[in-house]
Amino acid sequence: MTADAPAAVVLLSGGLDSVTVLALAAKRGFAVHAMSFAYGQRHLVELSCAARQAERFGARAHEVVDLSHLGRLVAPATALVGGSSLDVPKGGDPEAEGIPATYVPARNTLFLSYGLAWAEVLGARHIFIGVNALDYSGYPDCRPVFIEAFERTANLATKIGVEDGDPLRIETPLQELRKHEIVTLGLEHGVDYGDTVSCYDPLEDGEGRPLACGSCDSCQLRRRGFELAGVDDPTRYA
Hints:
There is one protein chain. By secondary structure, the chain is an alpha/beta fold. It has helices spanning 16-27, 46-56, 68-74, 107-122, 144-157, 159-163, 179-188, 217-229; strands spanning 7-11, 31-38, 61-66, 126-128, 169-171, 203-204, 210-211. The radius of gyration is 17 Å and the shape is globular. The termini are far apart.
């Protein structure tokens, strides 16, 4: 990466998909600025993984945005935050019809909005997000139609989009890939998947490292991805 490399914002959860996107953005020569969010998620341990991965791939900066109030607001509607009375679904079919209880209202809309604000300040034309429309849990804010709509909005709602004539891009390099294809791609780009969190309801060991439950939708998709990729699964299960 050169000193005059173009800036990009990467939304980095610390999960398998977002870390793969981080690696791809770094490989493309962007000056990566990583952004993570603490929104009261049960899997808060993912932020420790995000910090280590941001350093590993040479991010120029890594911001962790405190959205803890979001968790309180949406707790009645999602199982993914602490304090919710809903249980994380386990043992079901992760590709079943319908939007599961782990959907967090407006999450990607908010994340992309924060990323957009930072991108405008940085003069960055690219915002990377690890959404996927094939091996995912049916979330509406992971679908191509949403991403396309947000990109249009970004270019209508910002000075950089309206005045400069060089459009902002929401980069979704994993959008049409299966999980095993994502795993293969990430390994080719040096991702250490042993230091990522996909589990919606993990435990922590004595050193603050995640132990996956192995049965939530995300764990099932992840496990299947490594099996189909034909590589060892480095995930540590409880």
